[in-house]
Structures are given as C-alpha cells and as structure tokens.
C-alpha cells in the first residue's frame, strides 16, 4: 500500500513539473494564440502550444514567448483578414509566415514597426499593398518573401527593405510591375524576382547596396531587359529564361560592362542569340565565374569567341551549348568546362593552352586532341566522349590521378606508356635561403617527384609537360647536384634525372652600426657563420650571428668608431663567393682642413676637421711631407685625430689628406712650445683630451658617481650628502643648489621689482624634474636634468657638452615678460653651498676660468671639487645668443664654500623666450685644496670649531679607527669593508639553496647552523590614511630558473583577480660582485647576496587614492636552539625628510650569535616607468623574538599605479665581531628577555633605580633630538626593574 502511494505521488510530481515546464506561455501571448486560431481557423494544438505545433509554432528556451508563427490556409479555405489587434500582442516574433488565403489591412504594414525582433516575413500571396509599404519595416527585418504578387511594386518596398527581398517567384503571368527608377537609394542587398509582360524594366542606379540579383524571365516581352550594368554594386547575377517563351532576343550584353560583377549564371533555354561576336568580359576585372546554358555560340561568334579581363583567373562553364571549337580562345580562362555541348570541329592546335589550368569535356565530342593541349597546367578530363587517340603526354599518365579518362570507349590505352621524355635543368642561380629550380623539356608530366616517387611539395607547373619547377634547399656555394624523377606514381621505375645549380653570391645593401653591434644588411648570406668572412675597413672581423639577409658583428671602437655619415669599405665572403661595397651616405661632398695650423716639434696629435671624412685607411691617407701619419682616433665624420712624431721647428710642411682620390693640401708651421696645459691627457691642437676616467679643463680630476638626488616636491633644490674616500682620506661632503632670488634690474643695477620664489608646480620625468612658477604674467621654468650615464647633450643656444654620470644640469627659462624699460634685465640668482661635516683638518679654496664654450668654477675642500660649468650660449626666441652671467664666491671657509651664479636676461624685443644652462659634478681632484689655486691661497682649519658632538655607539667607538669613523651627529661611517650600525660586521656569503617550486620563499642554513628565511607574505590595499581595505594572499606560482656566470635568477610568476593582475618576483643570487641599476641608480651587489625584485602589473585598485603595501618577512635562527644563544635587532631609518622621522626604514639588522642578516630597503620604486619615492614601515611581528630567533616584518608602501610598479630590496649575511650580549636590547635567554651588557649591569647594580630612570630619559631625549640614522633600543626600564 505504501509503495502504491509513493508511485501515485511520483506520477503527480512528474505531471506537475511537466506542466510547469511546458505550459508556462505568457498569458497575453497564450490568449492571442487562442484568439488567432479561432479567428483565422487554424488547427493548432492549444494544449501544448510550444512543443505540439511542429513546423507552425516555436517558442524561446523558457517556453514563455512565441518566436516563430506559420499561418496555413483556414480550415474551410475561406479568405480571412489578419486581426491586427491580436497579432500585435506577439511582439517578440522573429519569423512569421502567412498562407495565400490570409489578407492584410493597411494597418498591418504600419504595425510591423513594433516588431523589433522580426527578421523574416513570408507571405504566400499579396493582392494589394499600401503605397508606403516598407516605410515602417523594423530595422531587424532582413528577409521579405512574397511568393505571388501581381500588382505594382511600391517604391518604398524597394527602398526601405533591408537585406533580402523575394517577389513573385511563383507568378505565372503579368501584373508584377516595377517602377522604372527609384527616387532614392535602396537598402536592399539581394533581390530575387520574376518578370512577365515587361514588368521588370527598372533602372538600377539607386540600388546602391544590391550585390545579388536573380531574375526569372517568363515571356518574350521581358526577355529584352538589358540594363544590368546600371546596378552599381552588383556582384552575383542569375538569369533564367522560361523554356515556354516563344521567340528569341539578343543576349543582354549589358552584363559585359557590369564592372563589379563576379559571378554570372545564365540559363538561356535557347531564347537568346548572340548579338556580339564574343562573350566579352574583358572590361570586368572582378569576374571569376561564368556559367552559360543552352546558348548557340556558332553563328554570330568569331574568334576569340570568349574574352576576359587580362591576367584574371576565370572559371568558364558551357552546358548544352552549341560551340565551334575553332572560334574559342582557350587561354581566356583558367578553367573550361564543356558539358554535354554540341562541339563542332577539333580542339585547336595553334593555341597556347599553358594559361589553362584544367579542361573538362563531357559527351558529344569526337574530334582530335592536339599535342598543344599537353600544356594545360593541371589536367585534361574526358568523360563519355568518342575521342579515339591522345597525345603521348596523356598516355604517360594513363591510369594516374592527374587526368581522368572515363568511359571513352574508342580509346585503346590499357596502361601508361612514355617512350619520348626529354628534361634539362636550366642554368640556375638560387638565393641562399632557397629558391626555384626550372626544368624544361617535353612529356615531363605535371609534377616533379623525389626519389621515393612522392611528389615534391614545392613542385610547380608553368607549362604542362614543358616547364616545371621545384625548390632548392637552403645552402651556399657553386655547382650543386640534385636528383629528381618524373611520372613517379604511374612510371615508378623510370630512371631519375640529374641537375646542377649554384647559389647566388652575397650582396651588400647597407650597414648599421651601434656601440654594441655592426649589422650588415644584404642578401644571400647564411646562418652558418663559419662559412662567412667579413672585412671592414681592411680589418677582418668575425661574425657573431647571421641569417640570409643580415650579419651581426660585435662592434669595437677599432672597427666602426662612430655611427653617423659613415663611409667604409665592406667585403663579405660566403662559401668562396665574395662581394665588396663602399658604404656611404646618400649625398654629401667631402671636405677636409687642419683645425689648428701649428704643430709641436716634440711630436703630438693633430685634428683634421671637415665633412664626410672616413676612418677607413683603405680609402684615405694623411701625409706630412710625404710621410704617412697614423690615425689615432676617429671622433666623427667631421673630425679625425692623427699622431705625428718629432719634427724640426721653424720649418714649413705640406699636409696632404687624400680620400678616394680627392686631395686636400695646406701648409703648416712647427713650434717648440706645448700647445696646451694638461695633467692626465694629451693635446690635440690647442685642446686638452683627458685620459680614460679623467675629466676637468686640465684633466686633473676623476668623476664621482653619486646616487640620483631625490626630488623636492615644491622647490627646485638639489642636495647631496655622502662619505667620499680619496687619496687615503675619508670625508663627508654635502652640497645644496637652489635659486635664491628673481628680480628685474635697471642699467645701474638697481632692483625695480623683486619677485618672491614661492611654491613651484612639479612635473617629473624619468631623468628630469620640471618646476614652473608664474609671476607678473610670465612663467619661470627650471628643469633639473639628472644624467646617469656619459653622453653628449645639446644645451641652450646649440652648445654640445659631454656629461658624466651624476651630472646635474639646471636649465632656466622665461616666457614673455613686460619690462619696465627696454634697457632693463631679468635676473635670477642661484646659490651653491659645498661643505664638509668635518670642521678640522680641512682646507678650502676656489678656482675659475673662461673656456671657449663655457665658464667654470670649482669649490674645493681637500681633494673634493664641486665643479660648476656655465654655458656661454643661451636661447633667445629659439635663436642662439650670448649668456650674461656672473659667478662669485662670497664665502670661502675651510669647511664651507658658498658661490652665487647669476643669469641676466635682457629685455626681449622682439623675442619672448629665454633659456640658459649650468651644470655641476662632484670630482676627485689629484691636486688638493691645501695647495691653493690660481685664484687664491688655501683657507685651512687646524682647530675644532664649536659643536655639540653626539657620542657614537660601540666599544671601541664605531669598531675603532680601522673600522669606522664617528660623525659629529653620533652615526658611524664604516670603512675598509666593514658594515653595520657600529661597523662591527663584514659581509659573508649566504649559502646557496634550491628554489622553492611553490612560492618565492628563500630558506637556507649556514654551516654553523644559522637558518635564514625570506618571504613575501601578502599584498595589502590601504586607503590614503593607511587603513587596510583588503589583503590578498598569493598562490599559484610558476617558476623558471636562469643561470649565468654572474648570478642565478629565479623567476616566479602568479596572477591575481582572475588573471587581470600579474605578479612577477625575481630572486637574484649573485655568484660574483655585480653592479646593478635600479630606478636610475647604480649599486654593487656582493657575491653571496640576494636581491628580490617584485613587479605588480595592473592592480585593480578599489579607489584611485589607494596605495599598496607589500609585506616582506625575514628571520634568522639558531637551529640548535641553544640556551647560550643571543639575538639582537637594529633598525636604521632614512631621515632625509625631517617630516618622516623614524617612519621610513632603510636597514634592518637581525643578529643571532656571530651572524647578522641585513636587509636594505630602497626609498625609490619604479612606478609606470618613473622613479618615485616610497616608504618602508615596520610592522608588528607575527612571531615573537627569542634568544634563538630574531624576526623582521616590513611593509613596502607603494603609490597608485596605472600600469606597473617595481620594488627592489636586497639581503646580505654578515659576520659580526661584537657579541649580541654586549649590545643594547639583546635577548639572551627565555627568562631574561631584555638583557643589558655586562659592563652596564655592573654600573647599574650600584646605582639607584631613580638615577637609572633619569639617565634613560636623558638618553632617549638626546637620541631623538640629534640622531639621523636611529637605532632601536630595548626597553632599559624593564632591565632595571629586574634589579629591584
């Protein structure tokens, strides 16, 4: 009984759900269907409307909306009108079909505009249409079909119907009348219709989108339509004449001038005759297919019978046509099909069949096939013919796949036979990247085969049986042999043939040189560099890589020393074949002269200047009284330096420069006096040229590479501070450069207007910062260029200056300014302060001099120079002018030198833009300031100046004089390879470890049992106040390893946010000391150190003002967990910004026993390609420190980015020579977490707690007040509490 009830419940459940699934038609639509069935007497199944009316009704997937509807004739065959008020309720219809007995009111055609999804309207019969039919068709409607329509066609139907229109294809008589012309453009793309009684006589000019026309012609009157060329976009044309037509009309030759026609199909039914001597498509460039049926091509036709557009590929098919073969030009098409035609005569023997790819003849042909037909490119196929013999070329392929011979009962052939084959390879020069080998002869067939009788993929037919080709492989050299076969499948035992060819010799087209590489462009080279010999400027060089069109050679200054207007001879030999070419600019005339007309009797160097000079000594020479001089240095195509030996003074010599036969001569004199003053270099003429690394006017200085200065956000000030070591001296030098005044002055030097230098607007670029300030309807622009590499730079006024790494250039500009007087000037003054933090044992001096293109000043403290260079040219309204400037030294102290640089811009009439430059560098000078200069005697300090020195940490202080130098601000400057906050450590190598395949964590252990750990825990998104909005853990890493001599690199990649954000982490383990560049700054990474680089690309910020925090974790651990172990942690802060005191971590030192794990956090990141300042903040540890483990958790805060951001911390392992137990804040056991040093314990035991507290407060106050690199100190208070 229970089973029965369950079964009944199951059946009920199924029935209920079936009804719910299939009977949920929208109520309004359901009612409309019911009423339409009743009104139009349909036989629909109303019990299951959507699924029970196959071929009549269909619904959407939900079963709630009717999509297609087919109305059949009323059940009693009565004629009924569409009830528009019911149909309008089915607005979601996409297709609707009406039978012949259903008629329409005018409102039906208007209501169609409401059917926004309707695509197809099919009506079996129309007896009337409103004049505006089509005007209200919805945009979605793209197919209208009216089977029977014997009334005039409204223009609007033709104009506003989109897509396809089919009219009257079931008509059997006249009535369907088209207008003779449309009054406006039509939207139709396809029209299919019939014509009776001349109903289709329309001019198609306004069918501007119609590309397909199909016309069924029912009577004689309609047969004469001949305006197909009026349809401007017609591509496909189909014409079918009724076989019941009485009489014939001339073939509609307008199709021949339908310029865009591509496909023409005409079923003539014998009702057309040719009114022209040819089927002439020669003016139809787009025609590709022609099919004609039942047309007489004998009576009016003359040769060539068929014409096509030159060089076109046309498929031409004639079916059941009468054809005189002698009148047909078989070269007019790429394919000819003669299907069941009445063929008169033989295939012509005097024609070129090589342009014909394929010829098919089916039935009713008993003529001959001449030998010329062998020229077809692909095949001759004969079906059901009475041909009795074939040329031998076809017999050679009998039974093969190439030519099909089916049911030709009179042919006697049973198997392939080929007794007369001739083949020879034409003399061929083939490109080295491979090319075409041509063979000629007769009876060769239609393909070239390998020795395995398989057709070669590269086989090609030019002329069937007479000219074939196949590809030669890549290669080089001469007289190469190749074997090939013919008729492989049909005559597999036919012997192979041998051909000989050679590869083309190399060709040189040009050359492109860079400091790194020389690229020779040309052709017929080879990727096999061992087969290539290259000679450039008479020097044989070895290629590094090559391909067929290029050769790459590692460049050296001795090969191609410059890269503009190069003239050089190049010889390339490839596998014994060579070519030589002199590379030269497209235009230009050589000129040459001696720059400085006096030589030195002791010998030296001279410079030839000019245009389009060459360094190639195979093309030029320089002689002095017929003695050849040696090219010393080719500086450019405008400057060559030659060396010469000792020569007699007081004599005149003839100098001859000869370049490719063009001779330049001049007389020179010789003096016994040196041409210039130089310390580390030589003279070329009267100019000093410094030896490598040296710089300065007399080549006495070495450049100092310093970190790129940070950008001030509101003022164009540049500052630097750093420890500099030279000539066994270490000194901390700092400088500041900034504008200090802007004023208008009169001729007497009096100030007319003094403009305060307020806040500037900053625009930053990768290597420059632009500051702008508006004043008195003018604009002051100061651009600070920060050069990181040596280069030649264009300055204002067209001056060219060489800059060194760390050169800082100030470019000052003014826009239009309203002067009080035309004799006034606008003056801007810059103050430059150089000083030492040491005030004893230092000397100061300055020097200055006027050079050809610039004026320089040098502030000197000991062996350090602050070198300032003032450009003597300026821009005045984009014209070069002379700079009005002054450089003074109002204050010169032993430890501080102040200089003032002033620029004066004269009143600009008519020009209105001014620009001038100066730049500066720090230099090591081989001459100390203590020796004085040509401008002044030195100012030296031997006694200390008053100061409030702060004691440094360490015992001995800063590790002692051999390890560090104590600064007056209480910090240590480490020397001789020592590092750490108190200079107690030296770097050692982090042990190499295998990469973690699942995440970019680094875990390794030293031989002494010290474990090291580095990881990126997560990425946090913070709001502008630092509040966390979300934290994203990182999973799904992929790893790739790259090894080199310099380093081992682990590349980790992961994606976040469904792949829209990419995270790349690069871990570099350095095998050797390496210089690494990041954010425009160079740094040295020691062997055995680790550098992490993290790039985040396209993070989807929740807000534009949000920032990211990348959390780095590091730890050091005594893996033995000895109770005797001690740990210590030191945090150093970057306090270059006084507003962020103790908030920007620079260094982290975590120590266990004698090993210290250090982390350096950069204060710069690369944001969308531009270096930007960032902050590194100390986060609460997730694991407490102990006597065996010290941890660090740092958050790297990065600003909002659009594309990407890159951060770059690094890690080092140090050997520390001061035990942690002797350092403040050490942890030495679980029961004694914060332990004081042994010396401190002895002192504190005899002191009172009160006195100790006072000392603690004083120490904290002094450290916070004066220290610039602070060290975290453990809570001394807790230690003293333990002593109570």
UniProtKB/TrEMBL annotation:
InterPro entries per UniProt: DUF7949 (IPR057709), EGF (IPR000742)
Domain EGF-like: 948-984
SS bonds (residue pairs): 974-983
Segments for region (Disordered): 986-1007
Any one Pfam family match given in the protein's UniProt record, by short name: DUF7949
Domain of life: Eukaryota
Metal-binding among keywords: no
Signal peptide annotation: 1-23
Cross-referenced PROSITE patterns: EGF_1, EGF_2, EGF_3
Keyword Flavoprotein tagged: no
Membrane-crossing segments per the record: 1241-1263
Start-end of Polar residues biased regions: 990-1003
Keywords annotated in UniProt: Disulfide bond, EGF-like domain, Membrane, Signal, Transmembrane, Transmembrane helix
Listed name of the protein: EGF-like domain-containing protein
Biological source species: Tieghemostelium lacteum
